[in-house]
What does this fold into?
Amino acid sequence: MAPAAPTKRVTLSEPLPLDGGQSLAGVEVAYETYGDLAADRGNAILVCHALTGDQYVASDHPVTGKPGWWERMVGPGKPIDTNRFHVICANVIGGCMGSTGPASMAPDGKPWAMRFPVITIRDMVRAEVALLDALGIERLHAVVGGSMGGMQALSLAANFPERAARVLAIATTARHSAQNIAFHEVGRQAVMADPDWQDGDYYGSGRQPDKGLSVARMAAHITYLSEAGLTDKFGRNLQDRDSKTFGFDADFQVESYLRYQGSGFTQRFDANSYLYITRAMDYFDLAEEHGGRLAEAFAGSKARFCLVSFDSDWLYPTAESRHVVHALNAAGAAVSFVELSAPNGHDSFLLEHPALDRVVKGFIG
Amino acid sequence: MAPAAPTKRVTLSEPLPLDGGQSLAGVEVAYETYGDLAADRGNAILVCHALTGDQYVASDHPVTGKPGWWERMVGPGKPIDTNRFHVICANVIGGCMGSTGPASMAPDGKPWAMRFPVITIRDMVRAEVALLDALGIERLHAVVGGSMGGMQALSLAANFPERAARVLAIATTARHSAQNIAFHEVGRQAVMADPDWQDGDYYGSGRQPDKGLSVARMAAHITYLSEAGLTDKFGRNLQDRDSKTFGFDADFQVESYLRYQGSGFTQRFDANSYLYITRAMDYFDLAEEHGGRLAEAFAGSKARFCLVSFDSDWLYPTAESRHVVHALNAAGAAVSFVELSAPNGHDSFLLEHPALDRVVKGFIG
It folds into this structure.
C-alpha cells in the first residue's frame, strides 16, 4: 500500500528520544480530532489505537472508505461525546497512516525500511505527548485505549503522570506474555518468509509481502476472537456449497472469513509497520521499566484509573487487568475495575456492547 | 525431505475406497511393531499417531535419530507393556514416512503431489484395518491414540466396531471446531504462500517450502502448549543476552524456541503431507458421518471406551471429551472418563505424566 496523505499532521520541533538509545529528528505525527477544544483546553481526550488501528477513530478510513473503527463509542451523543469533548487520535510512530514509520523517508531520501529504529510503546507515547505539546494541551481530561491502545494509556499514566486526569485501559495488559510474543513472532516470520519482503526493501519495487502479511493477519485474527464466538458465528458451516469438495478451497466459512481478513488487511497496512509495532508490543513490560515492580510505575499518581476486561478475551485475559489493578491498589491510586461478560473475545472492545458504553460514559463523566 | 525407507511395509491387495469417492490402488502402509504377537493373535494393540507423528512410537526416528515419540508409554515394562502386548503403529496414508501419500509415485510414475486425493480420518482407519487384515489380526486388544490418534481410535470404533475390544482416546475430539479449522487454515496458507511450494510440485526441484512449513509449524505449536506452560517455561526471559537488542533477532527465549521447532520440523516432514493431514482433521466430524447424531456412531458397540482429557488443553478441551462420553452413554457403551490436571496443554499426552500412565495401564489391563 502507498502511505495515505493524512488530513492533520505536525512535525515535532525537537528530536524524539527513543528507548533504544537513538533519537529521531523530524518526526511527523498524523492525527485526527473530533469535537471542539474548550477555551481552557481542559476537555481533550486522547484515544490511542490498537496494533492495526489508526487515527480514523470516528471518521471514514481514507483507504478503505469504511467507517471509523470506534464510531459506536466516539461521536456526538456517544459515550465519548464529541459535543462535550475534544477527541484526539494520533497514528502511532512506526505506523503507516501518516506518522513517521518504516515507510517514511530517512534523511538520505530513501525509505527507512528496516533501518528504522525499533521503537517501544513508551516511544509511541512520547510522540503523542509531543503532539499534545504542539497542540498546547497541558493536561488531558482522559487517555483512553483498548488493547495496544490500553498499553499506551498505562504507559502515559506511568511516564507522564501529570498529563492525564483519567486513564481508561480496556482489554489490555501491562506486559506481553510468552504466548503473546509467540503469536507475534509467527506473524513476523510469516512476513519475513515472503520473498517479496526483500529484507524490508520492497518500497517502490512493485512487489510487497502481501502473502506473508496476510498469513500474519490470519494467525493474529484468531487470537482476537473466542473459541465460542467462532463456533457461534461459523461452526462447521460450509461456504456457499452443500457438501465438502475434498479439495483445498475454502470449504468452511471460517476459512473464507480468515482469507478475507488476511487479504483485506494487506490493502491498508504496511508489512514493515506490522513488524515494528508487534515488536514494540512484545517489548512492553511496564514493571520492567520501573525497577521490576509494577506498583512503582504508578507511584504517586493522582489520576483516576478504570480497567475493563472481557471474560472471553484469551489474548489479554482478565488476570492481566487484575494484575494492573493490584499494582494500582498497592500504589494507592484511585482505580475501578470491571470484567464484562461478552462472547466475542478480545475484539469485544470494538463491538456493540451496551455495558461497555455505560462504563466508558460513566468513567469519562 | 526425502521419503524415508521404512523397515516394515505392506502393499494392500485391494484398492482402498475413499470418502471422497475415489479408490486408491496399490496403497502401501508402513508400520512398526513392538513385542511378540501371541499365538492366538489376541494381544495386538494398535497405536495411532498424531498429525506430525509417525510409526516410530518406541524406536529411533530414522531421519532425526531421536527416540520414539511415545517411548515413555510403550515398551518393556511400560504402561503399554511390550512384554505382554504386540504393539502396531502405522504411518497414516497421506503421511510421509513410507505410507502412500502426496510424495508417493502416482500410476504415471510422477509424484502425486496435489493430485493425491483428499483423504479423511476414516480413510486413514480403512488403511489401518486393511493392514490388520494383512497381518491376520481379527480383533485388537485395544486401539489407542492421542490427538489425531484419538480421532482414529474413535473412528475405528465407530466404523469397524468388531475390530477392537478397547478404545482409548486421549486429548481428542469427535469433530474439529471452527477455531481448530482456523489454525489449520493459517498453516496451509503459510505453506501455499511460499513460492517454493510451486503448487505442490516441488519434488525433485531442489526447492521445497521450508519457510512456509516452518511458519505453519510455529503457529500450530503454540496451540499444543498452554499459556501458563509457556509462561512457566519461558516467561519473558531473554535468549543468551542480558538486554533487548532493539532488533528483530530472537531476543526472547520463546521466539528462539519456536524458530527451532519450525525449522527442525521441515527436516522430517513433507509440506504436502501437512496440507493433506490437516485437511483430514478439519473434515473430521464423527456425528456427521452417522446421521448427525454422535451416539449413532457408537450404537451397539461392545467395546470398552476410555476418554482422557487435560485441563490445560485448549486445542481439544475437556468439553470435547465430555461430548464423546455423553454420546457413548447415550449409546449404552461402557465408558470411563478422566480429566487429568497437567500444566502443559495439549502436548501433555506426550510428556511425563504418572497419572496418565496409571490410567493407560489400568485400562489396557
Q: What stands out?
A: The domain at 8-176+284-364 of chain A is CATH 3.40.50.1820 (Rossmann fold).
